[in-house]
Amino acid sequence: MAAFLPFAILVSLLAAGATADNGYTTPTTPPPQQSDKLLVRVEGLVLCQSCAHRNSWRLDDAAPLPGAKVTVTCRDGKNRVMAWRAATADGSGYFLAEFGVTAVTDFFTGDPRKACFVRLLASPDFKCNLLTNVNSGLEGAPLRDEDKRWPGQGYDNVVYAAGPLAFRPATCVPSHHY
């Protein structure tokens, strides 16, 4: 009978609702309600690639390219262009393009990350104006979801990111003297 005493105590404690965490429980929060409409914003950086890394995807020592232009294109459910925006980089090379409130189902595959892409358009700097395909700036840079989402009034605000994208100098001084 003495062998069953600890088991009896355990059973009675469990029946009373005792837990190993001294009765403390972690509050559970419901997952955020996702709307069927989105206000999509796309952000990124445009840089001037250094001569030391031309013909590569490296952006070490790259400088912001103020005034650079990019286009953001989104496709609809039938894979046709449904909207596009041109965006201009600010003094730090940052750009932001905003689309109006759109039903999620209007985007190709119902996902703006798969329906939209960013391409380099133009550089205001004649010393750094050759397009590169760094992060697919020529082909169309895909969007990344960086968990920037908050509710609006009947829609969700979402900010996706692309890039960084880069132009490269038209001419570079040779690094070797022969």
List keywords for this structure.
mainly beta, 178 residues, Protocatechuate 3,4-Dioxygenase, subunit A, six-stranded mixed sheet, single chain, four-stranded antiparallel sheet
Care to describe what's here?
The protein has 178 residues and is mainly β. The chain has a single domain (37-168), classed as Sandwich (Protocatechuate 3,4-Dioxygenase, subunit A). Helix content is 9%, strand content 40%. It is built from 2 helices and 10 strands, in the order αβββββαβββββ. The protein has helices spanning 5-16, 112-115; strands at residues 37-48, 63-64, 69-75, 81-88, 94-103, 116-122, 130-131, 141-142, 144-151, 156-168. The strands form 2 sheets. Strands 1, 2, 5, 7, 9 and 10 form a 6-stranded mixed β-sheet that branches. Strands 4-3-6-8 form a 4-stranded antiparallel β-sheet. The protein is elongated and about 65 Å long. This is Pollen Ole e 1 allergen and extensin family protein. It holds the Pfam family Pollen_Ole_e_1.
